[in-house]
Amino acid sequence: MLRFVIDAYAVSELTVNEQNPRAAAFYEHMGFEVCGRSERDEQGGPYPVLYMKRRNG
């Protein structure tokens, strides 16, 4: 199902909470790789996030 959404909506980038390593590992398995990091989330909260991009995408 996720593969369909990624392809149908051309998802090439996403953000994942760094404190959720299982989610990051899942997205890596789905073809994404870490391309950046921030100490704060998009709302400025104290939650470190990883920026991921789709490999070959």
Q: Work out the helicity level.
A: 25-40%
* Order of secondary-structure elements: HEHEE
Query: How far apart, in Å, are the first and last alpha carbons?
Result: 18 Å
Count of helices? 2
Secondary-structure-based class equals alpha+beta
Count every beta strand, where a strand is a DSSP E run of 2 or more residues: 3
Percent of residues in beta strands?
Answer: 25-35%
Number of domains: 1
Q: What order do the strands of the largest sheet run in, or round the barrel if closed?
A: 1-3-2
Residue-averaged pLDDT:
94
Could you please describe the fold and organization of this structure?
By secondary structure, this protein is α+β, with helices and mostly antiparallel strands. The protein has one domain (2-54). It contains two helices and three strands, in the order αβαββ. It has a three-stranded antiparallel beta sheet, with helices on one face. The two termini are 18 Å apart. 11% of the residues are buried.
Quick structural overview:
This protein is an alpha+beta fold.
For the structure shown, list the relevant keywords.
57 residues, alpha+beta, elongated
List the SSEs and their pairings.
Layout: H1 2-8, E1 13-17, H2 21-29, E2 32-38, E3 49-54
Antiparallel strand pairs: 1-3, 2-3
